[in-house]
Fold each of these.
Amino acid sequence: MGMRDLTKRDSKRDFRRSLLAWYDAHRRELPWRESSDSYRVWLSEIMLQQTRVAAVISHYREFLRRFPTVEKLARARETSVLTAWSGLGYYRRARMLHAAAKVVVRDHRGKFPSTSEGLRSLPGIGRYTAAAIASIAFGEPVAVVDGNVERVLQRASGKLLSREKLWASANDLLDRNRPGDFNQAMMELGAIVCTPRAPACLTCPVVGHCATRGELNGIAKAEPQKKREIHYALDYRGGKVFLVQRERSVSLMPGMWELPELVGANGDHTPLFTLRHAITVTNYTVKIQRVAAAHGVRGKWVAAERLARLPLTGLARKILRKADLL
Ligand code: ADE
């Protein structure tokens, strides 16, 4: 396969070189790219978690003007943090941001942990955000996978990669000398060239390494999608959520935690909310109901603040986020 085969060393080297040269020449001038200060990088990555770049730009500068240092943010009242956040949505992120600032000041003398592992101990920082901050602010050679990077990797490889394979292949491709730039270049490529619809393959710096060249609009769509409806119980009381653990013997996500599924007549109430979730060839309509699990279901009550540290299924995470519990 020559240059296309990204398992070959020369091919990976060329991919990195081409991608970074493109990034150096074409990257967007974004305010958080003006410095690699960890406070600024952290703030931008939290803001970017569920919000588009355009909306973040205007809030980022104003937020920094009000809270120029992590100490100032830690000392601020929650209402003023929430006010500065207003318009960005998902206010739980702002509360976590404030909590993390306090931890950094109180437990780390105002310095952010400099490794992705250390960063993950802070509120509001998961695998993606920890890797983004560690690579951009501290040069740690760890790759990130967000929605944009995922699409680039799926198209380049022409394969439908599992979550773990995506992280492994991103780490394998990573430029270890410029990890922060490489990660941002991958995200940038996905955001402005390798777009979900009508990717701009003619201007893509790594088209020579791409197995699909935009022909497949996401490989999953090549197979006909099945439709299914599924119902879950969200039982939330006294700050705790009722969760069940998947059997350790199942092949898919063994031992992970999720909401109890409602089957049969149990699923007839008006849903609290509905969301869509796609797994390989099935599109699920997921309805969440504010009810108790069926009688006899074994599970445990988990305090909302502990949810982030529990191995949850992707769907459970999505539901709990939407319910503003995570
Ligand atoms: N999305 C999240 N973080 C980003 C970054 N640093 N650059 C571009 N897009 C991003």
Amino acid sequence: MPVDPAAFPPDFRWGAATASYQIEGAAHEDGRGESVWDRFSATPGKVRNGDTGEVACDFYHRFAGDVGLMADLGLDAFRFSIAWPRVLPEGRGRVNQAGLDFYDRLVDELLAHEIEPFATLFHWDTPQALEDAGGWPVRETAEAFAEYAEIVAARLGDRVRHWMTHNEPWVYAWIGHSWGDHAPGRTSEPDAVAAAHHLLLSHGWAVEAIRRAAPGAQVGITLSLSHAYAASDTPEDEAAAWEIDGGTNRWFLDPIFRGAYPADLLERNKLVAPLVHDGDLEAMGAPLDFLGVNYYFRHVVSAGADGPRLVRDPEAPQTDMGWEVYPDGLHALLTRLAEEYAPPAIYVTENGAAFGDVRVHDGRVHDPERTAYLQSHVTAVGRAVAAGVPVKGYFVWSLLDNFEWAHGYAKRFGIVYIDYPTLERVPKDSFYWYRDFIGSRPRQPAPAPVAAG
Ligand code: IFM
């Protein structure tokens, strides 16, 4: 189904997103310290095939060529993250100027191509030294993050206007601290609750620190959000859906936009209560300029004997991750966010799909399923915009195939294929679709010439 580019205002930003550990490589260069993902992926059995981010897409060395690709694509904006251990190898204290210099060069290259940088400060690569000192379950890590945020904003804030403090704190807290499938690999629910509390607290402190260092900055946070649907209209299924919504969505949205944890999650409230100091909730609720939304799938929930159960329609289309393709869930999510939380602006900071791409005899990568996925989700965003939801931009996940965490390089999300043995970049058909789509949007009218005299 073709998408109508005129459904979006002329200043809507079309972008693509990435994250430091997933693309940069150069894990031991220019004074970079160790991150929890270096340690985790080097631990046998943690990441499929023993893959690590040591080389990844080698973006650290090849970023200029990749910015060239972004310019060919016609991107308005590029979302990337900063690797904390490049800037502060021990997590706090000594600043590694060479690490900051890399982001300085990247930002300048983007701006030289009129691509706006959107910087995320934390996309899961905690310095290992901080993990060794207790990690996110301890409050000191939140203090360290605020210091780091101020250092980076002071260096880049004259050119970077849009800042996200964290990426998907739910994923980092729960998959990394309760399920153990991501770094740092802990398996304790109390650790997950404590990590989430300190991530939220550090977000609030960082908002202030960024604004101090870079007055005029637009500051937000990126959450992974999935609209939760009840599997039926029975009160039991409705209650189960509300509980899942609480654990994944409202646990973050409520403190950020309402200054309070959702009261209905009794067990979790018991765990978090001793960690909440005076002023924490006020800090977490610092007014934001925008909310970043990462959307991949919805939840369908039924009431099981042991609590809520996620259910799946085996006939529904799905991606290579086993995630259901459900674009209406993005529309429902965006309209709900506007109605219930009223963020001043929303950016869809990630949306995309992994499929089993192959490079075929013509040298190209034909990925019609990804193009269809992107078209249908962009259409859903357009419907939300038409309904008055203040969505200001959309970022495809991802520009490049990259290190998909515990899946290693087995899952390809890029609109550019990476031939890992050679690191050659091959734009997929979805890249050309996105390029043509961006190129066909209505242009902003040129300002009227000023009349002489
Ligand atoms: O690759 C991840 C990204 O790091 C965070 N959001 C979801 C993507 C796909 O799993």
